[in-house]
Every structure is written in structure tokens, then in C-alpha cells.
Amino acid sequence: MSREKILEKLAENHQQTLDKVLEQLELQVVKATNAIADTTVKTRILVELRPRLKTALETTFLNWSDTTIRGYDEIAKEVIDYFGKLPIPDAFKSLTEVDKSVIASLKKLSFQGFEDIANQYLDEIANAVYQSTLIGRSKDELILELRQKINGVYIKSNVADTKKLVAFIKLNRHKAQFQKEVDEAIDKLHTIYGSDVTGQNLRRYAGQMVHDSLRQFDASFIAHKAEEAGIDSFRYDGSNIVDTRDWCRSLKGQILTKEEIYSKWNGNTWKGKSSGDAFVVRGGYNCRHFWTPFDREWQKIKL
Questions:
Q1: pTM
Q2: 194 inside domain
Q3: Fewer CB in 10 Å around end: N or C, the chain?
Q4: Could you give the CA distance from residue 280 to residue 116 in angstroms, rounded to a whole number?
């Protein structure tokens, strides 16, 4: 399987498992909140709730993050296999002790990204409970807000029509032939719950992190191997979709030296360009493209 296919397969699998773990988290947060929401001592609520929420996040979202990041070894293996086919010295074709150290460091960095998101939403959820209790909001209103902070419009619901919409979106959102119907279903959910309320949620940011963390791990490790092997030129690979950035469309298939890449990167701006290294962030958030170490002299080699 090609590097591109492996990246796409892993990203889709990680997104699907994220959907399930966020449903579990939502249920645990609601359970923890219900357990203390009726207490008459309001000043104790945040003190008692925060540890319960922290445990819920650790046993669901952060456990999932750790397991997901361990799966990055599949990408590292594909990178090593690719280098094994290149006409370079044998010393750069295998997994070295330095490589293992780099992989461990990159995994740690990826986990910290998910950990930061978890801590942010721990604060938001705990504070929402405390503030709602102080101003006397109903438990039902509070629970709805907490569900939305985790899953946005994909919250668990007892409303039959809402359940059908959510189920349809989950089943078909990765299928191009159903994109129009999926968009319409999402619009209906936003109409029900209000897009201004549900736009910022854990699912949204974690979903983006799923994609970008995986791609940035791949980009960082292959750049490390190229540097180690003294390879100075790269081909821009990846698949274009409807909203692919012009930057990526213009570069796709081109073979450039590192100097040329950095020159183009520093000399251009575009919507969605993010800060960081040109090799790591590539086109920006949610970019599906990547740099492949490649020399023009290798074009006759089957890689």
C-alpha cells in the first residue's frame, strides 16, 4: 500500500474511533454532572466535579489519543520501506537508533497536542457547570450545553429525527456521492441547535488534530530521514479535492530543492497558510499533500 493510501486509511480509522470515544465521553460527563448537580452547597460543585471530569477525559479521550499515536509506527515503517528502495548508501535504508529516538520524540509531541485540547475542554466544561449552578440554570439546559461542548451538533439525543440525521451523517460523511445530502443534514442539525452555540467543540478541534497530527508526524520523520541521507530535493505529492488550495495545486508533482521550497514558501501567502516549517505544515490546516524525497535521476526507478 502506498504512503498516501496508508495516511488516508489511518486518518479515516482514527476519525471513526474518535467519534465513538467522544460519545463515551459525553455520557460520562453527563453522568458525573448529574451526580453532583443537585447539591445545595454550590461552592463544592467545582471542587467535586473537576476530578470526575478529569478522570472521564483520561479514560476516554486521552487513552484513545495514546492508542492512536502508537499506530503512527505504521507510517514510520512505510517511510523506512521507501528509503530501502532508493539508490542511497545502505546505512540510510534501515531504522537506526537515532530514528527510534526521533519517532519517540515526535509521538510525545503529538500526544501533548491532544493533551492540550483535553485540558482546555476540562476547564470549559467545569466552568460551565459552576457558572450555570451559580445563576440557577436548569439541569436540562446545562446538560445540553455540556453535550454540545463535546460533540457539537452530533450530541446524543432522545429526539428521533435528530438521531436519524446524526446516524446518516456518520455513515456517509466520508462518501463523495452523498456529500450534498450530508451537507443538508448538517444544516438541519445546526438549525435545531444553533450554529453559533455548537461551532466550537471538542469534536471539531480533535478531528482536525487527528488529521494534522498524523500528517505532521509523517512529514517530520521523512524530512529527518532525508536530512540524514543528504537528500536535497523533493516531489510534492498527494490528492487534490474540491477545496484544495491553489498553492498545493500549483506544486503538485513538482520536484524542488529545499532552497527552492523555502523560497516559494517565504515568498507566498494564501488563505489557510499556517505558521511553521514548509515541510511540516505544507499547505496548512487539513492539507492532504506531502513532500517525498526524490531526485530527477530516480524517475526511471519504480518506487
A1: 0.82
A2: yes
A3: N
A4: 20
47-102 tens-digit pLDDT: 778 888 999 999 999 999 999 999 999 999 999 999 999 999 999 999 999 999 99
Q: How many domains does the chain have?
A: 2
Grid cell locating 50: 473537576
- Looking at the fold, whether 80 and 159 belong to one and the same domain comes out as yes
128-133 contacts: CB < 8 A, separation 24 or more?
Answer: 129/33, 129/37, 129/45, 129/46, 129/49, 130/45, 130/46, 130/49, 133/37, 133/42, 133/45
Residues 247 and 200 both lie in one domain: no
Domain range for residue 42?
Answer: 3-205
Q: pLDDT tens-digit profile of 69-84? A: 999 999 999 999 999 9
What are phi and psi for residue 274, nearest 5 degrees?
A: -110, 160
Residues 196 and 279 in one domain: no
